[in-house]
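FIELD: query
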Amino acid sequence: MDVDNKWSNLLDDYLDSDGFVSYVPTSVLSDTFQEVRLYTKIDHRKDLPEPLAKRNLSILPLKNRGNYALVQGDMFQSTNFPSSSEQWESVQDFDLETLDGDRIGEQKYILKAVWSGMLADFLGVDELYQTISGREYSKPFTFKFGDAELDVKSVQMEVDAGFEVPEEEQIVLVEAKKRSRDKVESFNLRQLYYPYRQYRKKYPSYDVRTVFFVHDDEGNYNFLEYEFPDPKRMDNAELKHSKAYSLVDKETLNIWSVIDDTEIQSGVVPQADDLEKVLQVPYLILSGADSAMDIIEELDGLDTERQGNYYRQAAESLNLNDKYELTEQGRRYVDEDTTDWSKTVITVLASNKIVNESLQKLRENDKLSSEDVYDIIENHSDYNHQTCQRRTRTIMSWLRWVKRNSDELSEDEEGCLVQA
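FIELD: result
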């Protein structure tokens, strides 16, 4: 039975047609879905199961291992990103060697935003100090959502980063994503609102500010600050202000010398567009991941076992792992002690035959189109047209990562990569 049918059956059994809210025990969700967190942690409006969407229903946790609420209303906030970014050079006059190391995901970019001074600039403060991160359980609080009043107690929540601004008596809570902006058309307000209520209750004399942060595929640091005019109501968030920055690198990388020194080790053609997530797979394996479900549990935006397998296979195409065992290159990769993360990643990419040939063609012709990459894939596989197209998108997405992390590539109006 597919997910939508499971939700339909559950709603038939538990939805109260006469009220504003229905309560579903966690045990029932466990019996229905097995992996409750995967099917109730719905981060974007487009991912809301159809049976919930057509009834305008949201699902919100009320108690750890207790109840969830099915309630009328929209739990998502649409994002409105800035149309342009400001060039930003770090306020620091020296570098931290570990800042550009092998850390992956949004935490790396939060740290860079803080160290470079851009987060303080966005917030309009002189100094801020990180004091909060990780998971915790909420203290009891009551809030309104639509026409319902809900009681929350001991729900697990996570703050990606929290800061104190002592001079202003402010606490800043940041929810962060490392994704392309078109994939974050909305976000679940609970990710900001539950921590917001937690810290208002713990520190009543402080002004609690909430920020949604996205480091996108173009390398921009996007900040959106939201406020809740009625602190006791979740569904009244308003965008206070937003700004995007582009961090100016002080050093350049010669990608051609890296490619020339790299030995091709794999001819597998990958299908997984988000390179940052692919690069996390070896670390997940190192931490004990041994199934596709383990991978999608940790990688934001992946929802199905099939996607988990695609991302594991994409890491294999870079010779980083053999199923759920690290290869020799994978062990070197996770053990790498380097301040030049871009060089490390480009070296790994260039070990894939399809990526390497694409970059070599770009160097020879000063230009590379999607059609060029399609031809390379077609020459090295027996995939049908649709599969070649999908894998072309993956390779082009990976090459755009190289473009964003070096000064030697750019993109023309037709979407072709060219030598800068």
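FIELD: remark
The longest helix spans residues 385-404.
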